[in-house]
From TrEMBL:
Gene3D superfamilies: Ribonuclease Inhibitor. This is F-box/LRR-repeat protein 15-like leucin rich repeat domain-containing protein. It holds the Pfam family DUF7885. Residues 64-185 form the F-box/LRR-repeat protein 15-like leucin rich repeat domain. InterPro entries: FBXL15_LRR, Leu-rich_rpt_Cys-con_subtyp, LRR_dom_sf. It comes from Anolis carolinensis.
C-alpha cells in the first residue's frame, strides 16, 4: 500500500522555526548571519510557500554567501530596492532567476548584470529587459551559459545582435553561451528578417546547444544552403559571411569545409527540412518532427547517431506501422519517445514499436482507433495475444497512453493486443513512477488484475496515477492499488463512469484512517 505519513525531517522543522522568527526579529534588526547558501535558499522557498515572506524579510536574506538566488518565486516583492541590495551584497551569484519581476527598471537591471561577472545562469523572462540590458550582459558576463529572455516585451530582434556582438569593436560576446530561450520573440518588421538574426546568433555563438525559438529550423536551412551574404545586413555588425569565415576560414570557397553547429535540440522539423538539419547539426539529441506526406519514413531516418529524444506528430492520421523503420533503426538508443496522430490500423503496430524501444525512460503515445479492420482474423485471438513474448522496460519511469477518439471502440483483436502490451508495460517496468491512462476503451480492471495479483514486483515505485475518462475501471482496481505495495502519493480520478463520489469518500476515509501519504483528486 502507499506509504504512511512520516514525521517531518529535523532540517525542515528547524527551517520552519527560523522562518517564524525571521518575520518578527531578523527583519527588523537585519542581524548579520552566517547561514550557508543552501540553507538560505531553502529558507526563502519555505517562507514563500508559507506566505511568510515580506519585502523586509527578503532584503535580510540577500546575503554575500549566496551563489544561487531565485526571486521568480516572489516577483511581487521584488522592487528596485531589492535589486540594489542584490547588486551590492550578492556579488558571488552564479545563478539568478528574475522571471516575472516586472517592477525592476531597466537601469537597475543594467547595474545588476554589470556587478555579477560570475553569472553562468540568468532568467530575465517577463522583465523590462531590453537592448541596453542585453548589451551590458554581453560585455560583462563572459561566462554566461544559460539565458532566458522569453516574454520580454522590450526585447527585439535587433537586441539579440547586441547580446552576441559589440558593434563598437566588432568583438563577439557571450562565447560560452549554451542555452538561449526566446520563445515569444517576434519580428518588428518581417519574419524573414528575424530568421536572418537567428542565423547571425547561431554563427556568432560556437557553443550554443539550445536555441529555443520556432524559426530555428528556417535559420538552419539557410545555413545549409549557404545563403550568407557578404553584405552587412545589419549596419554596424559583421556580415554573415564574415561570421561564417570566422568559424570556418575556407567556408563558402569552392570545395571548402561545410559549417556545422553545436545544436543538440531542434523542433518544428518536417521530413523535408530534416536532412538539412541533420547535415548542419550533427550532434542533435532531441528532435520534434511534424510529418506531412512523406511516403517512406525509413529512408530519411537512418543516421541519427546521437538522438535520444524523439517527438513525432502527424498532420494527418497515419498508420503507426509506418514508424517501424524508424524505431527499428533508432529504438535501442531512444530514451524519450512521444508520438501523436497515428492510428492502430495494424493490430501489432503498438506491440512491435514497444519491442523496438525497450530502453525508453519516458513514453507518451496518443493514438486513434483503426480506420478499418486489421489483418489478424482468428477465432482464438485470446490465445494469440497471450502468446506474445513479454517485453521488459528496465528504465521506464513515466508512461502516458491516450486514445484520441473515444467515440470509436477498438476492434476486439486490437483491444486484446493493446491490453497485452499495456500489461507488459506495467508488469515489467520496475522503475515506473508516473502513469497516465486517458480515454482507453480496454478493460483496465483486467490489466491491473493481471499486473498486481501475480507474485512479482510490479509497480513498486509508482508515485503518480492519473485515470481520466476510463470507463472500464472500477473500485476493485483502486482497492487493489491501495492494498498493494507501492509509493503512490498522488491519485487522480477524472470522469470514470464506474467510480462514483461515494466510492471516493471511502478512499478518503481509508487514507485518513491509515494515515497514508496520498493526495486523492476527484474531478
Amino acid at each position: 500500500m502507499p506509504k504512511k505519513r512520516s514525521a517531518p525531517l529535523l532540517r525542515r522543522m528547524c527551517l520552519e522555526k527560523v522562518a517564524l522568527n525571521m518575520r518578527y526579529i531578523w527583519a527588523g534588526d537585519y542581524i548579520i548571519n552566517r547561514l550557508a547558501s543552501s540553507f538560505v535558499k531553502e529558507l526563502l522557498q519555505l517562507m514563500c510557500e508559507e506566505d511568510l515572506l515580506t519585502s523586509s524579510v527578503l532584503h535580510s536574506l540577500l546575503l554575500p554567501q549566496l551563489s544561487e538566488l531565485d526571486l521568480g518565486i516572489c516577483p511581487e516583492l521584488v522592487t528596485e530596492s531589492s535589486i540594489q541590495i542584490t547588486t551590492v551584497c550578492c556579488k558571488n551569484l552564479s545563478s539568478l532567476n528574475l522571471s516575472g519581476c516586472i517592477q525592476i527598471p531597466e537601469e537597475a537591471l543594467i547595474d545588476l548584470v554589470k556587478s555579477l561577472p560570475h553569472l553562468t545562469k540568468l532568467d530575465l523572462s517577463k522583465t523590462q529587459c531590453n537592448t541596453e540590458v542585453l548589451s551590458a550582459l554581453g560585455s560583462c558576463c563572459c561566462g554566461l551559459r544559460e539565458l532566458d529572455i522569453s516574454l520580454c516585451e522590450e526585447v527585439t530582434q535587433e537586441s539579440l545582435l547586441h547580446l552576441v556582438c559589440d558593434p563598437a569593436t566588432g568583438a563577439l560576446c557571450c562565447q560560452e553561451l549554451q542555452t538561449l530561450q526566446l520563445c515569444t520573440l517576434k519580428s518588428t518588421t518581417n519574419e524573414h528578417e528575424l530568421v536572418w538574426v537567428l542565423v547571425f546568433v547561431l554563427l556568432a555563438l560556437p557553443n550554443l546547444k539550445y536555441l529555443i525559438h520556432d524559426s530555428v529550423v528556417d535559420a538552419v536551412c539557410l545555413i545549409y544552403y549557404q545563403h550568407l551574404s557578404s553584405t552587412r545586413i545589419f549596419p554596424g555588425f559583421p556580415s554573415l559571411a564574415e561570421l561564417a569565415r570566422f568559424r570556418v576560414p575556407d567556408y563558402l570557397n569552392e570545395g571548402g569545409s561545410s559549417l556545422s553547429l553545436a545544436l543538440k535540440e531542434i523542433y518544428a522539423v518536417d521530413e523535408y527540412s530534416w536532412p538539412m538539419a541533420c547535415a548542419v547539426c550533427p550532434h542533435l539529441e532531441e528532435v520534434s518532427l511534424f510529418l506531412r506526406d512523406s511516403p517512406d519514413l525509413g529512408q530519411s531516418f537512418t543516421s541519427w547517431g546521437s538522438l535520444v529524444h524523439l517527438t513525432i506528430n502527424c498532420k494527418e492520421r497515419r498508420d503507426l506501422k509506418e514508424l517501424w523503420p524508424v524505431t527499428r533503426n533508432l529504438g535501442g538508443q531512444l530514451r524519450i519517445l512521444a508520438i501523436e496522430g497515428f492510428s492502430l490500423d495494424d493490430e501489432l503496430s503498438f506491440y512491435t514499436l514497444l519491442n523496438d524501444c525497450q530502453n525508453l525512460k519516458h513514453l507518451r503515445v496518443t493514438f486513434f482507433p483503426p480506420v478499418q479492420s486489421g489483418n489478424i482474423r482468428m477465432k482464438n485471438i485470446d490465445a494469440f495475444s497471450s502468446s506474445l513474448p513479454p517485453l521488459k522496460f528496465p528504465r521506464l519511469s513515466s508512461l502516458y497512453l491516450m486514445q484520441a477518439d473515444v467515440e470509436d471502440l477498438l476492434p476486439a483483436e486490437h483491444g486484446l493486443i493493446l491490453k497485452t502490451s499495456l500489461t507488459y508495460l506495467l508488469k515489467y517496468s520496475p522503475n515506473l513512477q508516473s502513469l497516465d491512462l486517458v480515454c482507453l476503451t480496454i478493460s483496465l480492471d483486467e490489466v491491473f488484475q493481471m499486473v498486481l495479483t501475480t507474485p512479482n514486483s510490479s509497480l513498486l515505485q509508482l508515485q503518480k496515477l492519473y485515470l481520466i475518462q476510463d470507463d472500464d475501471i472500477s473500485m476493485n482496481t483502486i482497492d487493489l492499488l491501495l492494498s498493494s505495495k507501492n509509493e503512490l502519493n498522488c491519485l487522480k480520478i477524472d470522469t470514470c463512469s464506474k467510480i462514483c463520489e461515494t466510492d471516493l469518500e471511502k478512499v478518503l476515509q481509508k487514507v485518513v484512517k491509515e494515515n497514508l501519504d496520498l493526495n486523492v483528486v476527484w474531478e
